Amino acid sequence: NLDFETAHEVGPGEIVKITAEGMEQIRPANKKMQVCSFLWVYYGFPTSTYEGKNVEEARFSNGFNLAKTDDVEVDCCSGIPDSGTGMAMGYAAGKGVPYQRCIAKYTPTWPRSFTPSNQSMRSLVAKMKLIPNKAMLKGKRVLFCDDSIVRGTQLRDNVKVLFDQAGLKECHMRIACPPLVYGCPFINFTSSKSDMELITRRIIEKFEGDANKNLEKYATTGSPEYQRMVDEIANQLGLTTLKFNTIEQLVEAIGLPKCQVCTHCFDGSSAYTLNEFADED
């Protein structure tokens, strides 16, 4: 709200210097580009736009498209605030069910509850931050939309509260992205940088005896291994049903070519390395 206007969008690897006289390009943009898909799934602010693709529009489309392929019967749809809200509004529109704020966010807490390094602190922040509205939950079949499942600890605790304290009848969870099977080599989703903090890896280790075995099969939507993993996640979290978005639907919602979107954490596809970018110089 400062009346700024976009003058230039900084490209991949580009370096610019801003002065009182204007802008000076220090390093030109690379020809190759892979934008982190998590910008649209989680990190991005709703009004932010990356490479011409608005975050909230992508989240709405994500939910709308997912609803068209989902046959579950629910009374209403709700988002896990904040990053699940746009997807839930899209899902409600696509499904033709009411969108309701079944969970409200108490804002004077940590802005991102998955970011504290200590698990007990993460759980405390999550408990303080998300307040269920019992009047809209009791006896209802509610479908919730959320951005992702990393460790699963917060979601498990929240689901238990919805059933035990709010009287929820059914809890259906829809996730904006595919399961996180591979650790990110750049930003990392966990403070310890250990893939074993991912709920998917812990389940794979439980099934296979080795957390690194058959990862490609578990990451392939629709495979027997994938479905077994998803069913186990739902069981551990106490969900009535659980579905993840597909890479294809996510990329379609973002609106960029697949080659320009990094999906490594979902499918293990090769991400460009810093050396590959440097080779362009």
Automatic annotation (TrEMBL):
GO terms for molecular function: transferase activity. Keywords: Glutamine amidotransferase, Transferase. The keyword GTP-binding does not apply. PANTHER family: AMIDOPHOSPHORIBOSYLTRANSFERASE (PTHR11907). This is Amidophosphoribosyltransferase. It comes from Segatella copri.
